[in-house]
Design brief:
The complex is a heterodimer of chains A (about 450) and B (about 140). By secondary structure, chain A is mostly helical. Chain A has 20 helices and six strands. The longest helix of chain A is centred in the middle third of the chain and has 38 residues. Classes of the chains: A mainly alpha (about 450), B alpha+beta (about 140). At the A-B interface, helix 1, helix 5, helix 6, helix 7 and helix 8 of A face helix 1, helix 2 and helix 4 of B.
Amino acid sequence: MIGTLINTFWESTIENGRSFLSANSDEKVKRAKLLIGVFYLFVFVNAVQTFSPYQEFTAWSVLLESQQLFTPIWTMRWFPTDHWELGVRSILLFFLGSSLLGLLFWQRSRTIRVAVFVAIFLYLSFVASFGKIDHFMHVMLLSSFLFIFLPNQTESASSKLELLKVFFGAQTLVLLAYFVSGFFKLYGILDQEVRGVVSALSPDSLARNLAKSSLASSYDTFFSSVILYNNSYVFSAFMIVGFAVEFLAIYVVFKPKLHRIWGVMLMLLHAGIVLTVGPDFTIQMFVVGILLVFSPFANLDTDIVSDVSGAMKSLKNRLTKSKNEFVLFYDGDCLMCNGFITFLAKYDLPDGLKISKIQSDRFQQILSQNPDLATIDSIIVVETNPTGDQLIRIKSDCITWVLTKVTSTFVPLRLLHLVSPYTANTVYDLIAKNRDIPGAEHCPMPPENIRKRLVS
Amino acid sequence: MHKTFISYFIPLFLGVYFIVALLPVFAYGGGEIFPFFSFKLYSKIPDGFVRYDLLLNEGEPDESFLILGNSSLNPLEKRNYPYRLGIAGSQPLESLDAYFAENPDLLKKGRSVAFVKLSGKSIDAVRDKVFEVETIKQLK
């Protein structure tokens, strides 16, 4: 079960027949290393900032005089309160020293990357030990933990792939956190509506959130007066769009073409929060920028504008009937695949859909261009547009796409795939792994309407 | 592609992160397990507020609060005072003297100090300064 989940996770990175982690990896490794270097630079800058006399939140002088406010969280129970000043100065100096070493030697030494993680962890634990936990450095902390597992050298192909996997892990972690946060916000709407109390759909919902923050912090935000004095559905619409951006973050994980777009959307979300409700996530914005806006898995030859136009074009293609050719390849030796084809035969199949076996010459040609497809041994759809561009659908993408082409009954399955391809692929893999049909030995002859569409 | 330590570790770590982060939703009273995100942050729209504060009087006609509207607090005091006064608010009335005796720094300001409960609509409180003040105990 765990093995299936792990395999499914990495196989979900296969896009158009090839894992986007391994395709053109030299260029991606170069970009990822640059970004990780910038990350360690940013950690160092943050460490230096803690010594600034102008730093308001965690000024060292305020920390030194706040012993009576110290309410240690579980990670700080060891703190030597009898030697308060020594303890505070040690944590700050360890943060500074480790982050400087991290900036200089992160590529060479895992021990130094461990030290950077421990330093951020101690510092963040310490400043969270005064009655309230903030989240402004959580992404930085968790990314620094994953970066411990970077390889020290990236000369071999396997170490390059490891570096990219770690970077992708950090991206996934960020997007996963946003998704769950968005999920609970959308669930909150449902829950509050069912209970008949004010929800995010109310025109004063943003004002209520703002007032709650303002009471806690005594700060005004840039748009405080506008929001508090004007109830409007426009504000609640903005809030719900923000929830949706968070919720749909999970969809982006395995869609590298959307990494940059979603990175910008998440940064705009935080900018909007600072202007309206107040919580400051500028450090998190920077890490989101490093991980997503400059994602090494996006098309490095184009810019974000091209990503947007590509996404719009793809959406348009999905919404309009295109004259593309579709070939559904299935494993002719697989009983379940044959059963699926027989099942499809009960419906009117879409125009332009041809069917072939993965044992055919046509598929072997595709396989030679997309070697990662060798691990997919059941059903694959290859879509070719009039200009010759190919889109390869595998696993849950393929199955749910085909099913919704023949009947609308399976639209919920397609939605599951669209919202969380990983979940849908896991279900697919669990079924595919147990596809042996007891008692069945021979694959049946395809029905007549399927045979008419067979191509070699 | 799937055989290295990293190939196993990354998905497992993400799974563990996901599960630990979800735990407070079902257990621990919703409290956060550091350093995992509080996924329920801002998930519900607040309807009214209840806060605990200290009403300070220096012998002048105007009274002020230790927390509400006090711009002289440093950022750590802004976090810590609501936390400790929230704990005080959950104490039985007869335990309050002992609680504040253990937290003398809370009473260092003001000639007279009352422990109060503030409640009302958040928007009215911020916009129009309209809210209810209920004195729980005169402390000084």
